[in-house]
């Protein structure tokens, strides 16, 4: 079963000015496409050829590095695109807001901890908000790993993730990862995050 790259669920310029149009073109059309192409090559003719991306990710510890890295890249980016929309500065509401306050004390404290997880992730990786044993937890993963993987240091169900690879922000923010993470809050699709919380 060959994987395919779905189109973005919005226009390439939909996240301006926080994430620029050129970055979205390169990030989606080049980087994500490469993960799809490479995972397809890595699973072709193997026992993994007919497995879902979720199955591959869940068993990352027993698959080849090429499948783990590129399969993780495909899952992570698909999740990432669906997490974004220009939110005009809105904040989470209802159950999601209550869960954030219960876990972190306040929305501002949550943002600070999430940003710190992304800023302090050495090299490339992701910052995550996950559900673990019914509670919200913040963690980060290296490279294209994620908390669904059996080899993850912190495991759980992701409901929000931020890509902190330089390709996600360098054209606009250069080496200023903290500025990119601060801008990220303007493009979080809180409705999607709340929906994932309900299902977790």
Task: Give the averaged pLDDT, no decimals.
Answer: 97
Largest sheet: 3 strands, antiparallel
> Termini separation (Å)?
27 Å
Structural class by sheet pairing and helices: mainly alpha
Task: From the alpha carbons, calculate the radius of gyration and give it in angstroms.
Answer: 16 Å
Order of helices and strands: HHHHHEEEHHH
Strand order of the largest sheet: 2-1-3
How many beta-strand segments?
3
The number of helical segments is 8
CATH architecture classification of the largest domain: 3-Layer(bab) Sandwich
CATH class of the largest domain reads Alpha Beta
Globally, the shape reads globular
Explain how this protein is built:
The protein contains 8 helices and 3 strands. With 200 residues, the chain is mainly α. It has 2 domains: 21-83, Fe,Mn superoxide dismutase (SOD) domain (Helix Hairpins, Orthogonal Bundle); 94-199, Iron/manganese superoxide dismutase, C-terminal domain (minor pseudopilin epsh fold). The chain has a 3-stranded antiparallel β-sheet with strand order 2-1-3, with helices on both faces.
Defining key terms:
Helix Hairpins, 200 residues, mainly alpha, minor pseudopilin epsh fold, three-stranded antiparallel sheet, single chain
